[in-house]
Amino acid sequence: MANPKAVILVSGGLDSTTALAIARSEGYDCYTISFDYGQRHRAELHAAELTARAGGAIEHKVVKLDLQSIGGSALTDDSIAVPETEGEGIPVTYVPARNTIFLSIALGWAEVLGANDIFIGVNAVDYSGYPDCRPEYVAAYEAMANLATKSGVEGQKLHIRAPLMRWSKGEIIRQGQSLGVDYALTVSCYQANEAGEACGRCDSCRLRRAGFEEAGVPDPTRYRAG
C-alpha cells in the first residue's frame, strides 16, 4: 500500500524543518514547497532546499511571488528596519496575509498531488504576535479549504497540520533532535547575510537562541562577526 502524501511548507528555518521531520516520521511521502516572495535575503531559500533534501522530500518546489509590491513589512520593504528590541503588539516583521497566500498555493498543489495533509510549522507559544500563527486561524483555514476545493466537496477531507502549535521552542528542538534534524542547515534570522550568517539581535534570533538554551542543546547557528 502506498504511503499517504503530504505537502510541507518549508522556509529553511527551525520550525518548518522540524515539521518536515515529523511528517516523514509519521510515514508520509513528503513534497516540500517554499516561496521566493521578495524577502530581505535569499539565504533562507538555500536553507529550505538543503533541509528539504536532508529531510527526504520527494520533490521540492520554489514558487515565486512578489509581495514586495504591496510592502507593509520589514521583511519585504527595505525602508522599514528590522527591530532589534522587543516591542508591543503585532511586530513590523509580520508580512500581510503571508500564511494565507502560502497555504493557498500549497493547497492547490496538494489537490494536484492527491495529498490530504498540509504541514505548516506555525507556533502559538513563541509566535511573536503573528495573527496567522494561532490555532483559531489554522482551524478556520482548514474549514475554508474543505469548502473551497474539489477534494473537499468530493469527500476527501483536507487537513492543515500544525504539530508544533503548542510547543515551546525548546520542546521543538528536542523533538527535532530525536528525529535526527541537523539544525546547522537551518536559517532563522530575519536579516541573515548571503552566507546565511545570523545577526544574533533580531526577534527570531533571540527566540532561536533561547530555544537551544531551554533544550540544553549546543546552538549550531553561525553568527556574523561584530
UniProtKB/TrEMBL annotation:
<dbReference type="GO" id="GO:0005524">
    <property type="term" value="F:ATP binding"/>
</dbReference>
<dbReference type="GO" id="GO:0016879">
    <property type="term" value="F:ligase activity, forming carbon-nitrogen bonds"/>
</dbReference>
<dbReference type="GO" id="GO:0008616">
    <property type="term" value="P:tRNA queuosine(34) biosynthetic process"/>
</dbReference>
<keyword id="KW-0436">Ligase</keyword>
<keyword id="KW-0671">Queuosine biosynthesis</keyword>
<keyword id="KW-0479">Metal-binding</keyword>
<feature type="binding site">
    <location>
        <position position="189"/>
    </location>
    <ligand>
        <name>Zn(2+)</name>
    </ligand>
</feature>
<dbReference type="InterPro" id="IPR018317">
    <property type="entry name" value="QueC"/>
</dbReference>
<comment type="similarity">
    <text>Belongs to the QueC family.</text>
</comment>
<keyword id="KW-0067">ATP-binding</keyword>
<comment type="pathway">
    <text>Purine metabolism; 7-cyano-7-deazaguanine biosynthesis.</text>
</comment>
<dbReference type="GO" id="GO:0008270">
    <property type="term" value="F:zinc ion binding"/>
</dbReference>
<feature type="binding site">
    <location>
        <begin position="10"/>
        <end position="20"/>
    </location>
    <ligand>
        <name>ATP</name>
    </ligand>
</feature>
<keyword id="KW-0862">Zinc</keyword>
<feature type="binding site">
    <location>
        <position position="205"/>
    </location>
    <ligand>
        <name>Zn(2+)</name>
    </ligand>
</feature>
<dbReference type="InterPro" id="IPR014729">
    <property type="entry name" value="Rossmann-like_a/b/a_fold"/>
</dbReference>
<keyword id="KW-0547">Nucleotide-binding</keyword>
<feature type="binding site">
    <location>
        <position position="202"/>
    </location>
    <ligand>
        <name>Zn(2+)</name>
    </ligand>
</feature>
<dbReference type="Pfam" id="PF06508">
    <property type="entry name" value="QueC"/>
</dbReference>
<protein>
    <recommendedName>
        <fullName>7-cyano-7-deazaguanine synthase</fullName>
        <ecNumber>6.3.4.20</ecNumber>
    </recommendedName>
</protein>
<feature type="binding site">
    <location>
        <position position="199"/>
    </location>
    <ligand>
        <name>Zn(2+)</name>
    </ligand>
</feature>
<comment type="function">
    <text>Catalyzes the ATP-dependent conversion of 7-carboxy-7-deazaguanine (CDG) to 7-cyano-7-deazaguanine (preQ(0)).</text>
</comment>
